[in-house]
């Protein structure tokens, strides 16, 4: 059997067989998808438990940030922003820049 040229992992016959198999699988998937009732939106995959937990955690953090920001604005004369912090702070104080008096 002759050696394949560099950069060619499979012989041409193997490559053609793989491509034919992929095309057959694609057609089978398209056919099974078209058999679903039109207009019905059925997700092909459910979100994983990790994605669900991450989404719930993000919503919880957003609610905490909003509550902390409202509390800070009502009980302080300073300015605050919501910002992701590597130290776990939900809001950060903003110090205004004052123009130097000349």
From TrEMBL:
Keywords: DNA damage, DNA repair, Nucleus. GO terms for cellular component: nucleoplasm; SOSS complex. GO terms for biological process: DNA repair; response to ionizing radiation. It comes from the Eukaryota. The keyword DNA repair applies. InterPro entries: SOSSC (IPR031821). It is found in: Nucleus. Belongs to the SOSS-C family. PANTHER family: SOSS COMPLEX SUBUNIT C. Component of the SOSS complex. Component of the SOSS complex, a multiprotein complex that functions downstream of the MRN complex to promote DNA repair and G2/M checkpoint. The SOSS complex associates with single-stranded DNA at DNA lesions and influences diverse endpoints in the cellular DNA damage response including cell-cycle checkpoint activation, recombinational repair and maintenance of genomic stability. Required for efficient homologous recombination-dependent repair of double-strand breaks (DSBs). This is SOSS complex subunit C. It comes from Seriola lalandi dorsalis. The lineage of its organism: Eukaryota, Metazoa, Chordata, Craniata, Vertebrata.
